Amino acid sequence: MRVPQILGRGQSDKVSTISAELSIFGKLTASGAIELEGKVQGDITCTTLVICGNAELNGTAIAQAAVVRGRVLGCIRALSVTLEPTCHVRGEIFHKDLFVVKGAHFEGTSSPSVDPIGGQTHIQIALAKAKAAMDH
Known about the structure:
The chain is built from one helix and ten strands, in the order E-E-E-E-E-E-E-E-E-E-H. It is globular. The protein is mainly beta and 136 residues long.
């Protein structure tokens, strides 16, 4: 399965593939896309992340776009997250856009965010504005 054509202008079109034979423990960072076919216990940061059908991520994913077909236990932070029918996600998803395809399995919390990669949700921003208004 290849990385979908969801890279924006100026983003690297290089794809790093973590093959099904690999199990990685630690932090992965790529300036381009990552196609995960194996197993990662740790954090992944890249422009586009595709977690293939038999792949597993136990940790945090940070990307501009994430497509999940495999298993995730942890946190996904991305502007665009797509959960496909073969996925099993347990944890938190911070997103600007979330697409859940019929048949996807998701157990956890989903938080819309203006800046999911940076970490502030709509609720946190509203609370901060309300607090600031009360302080003045």
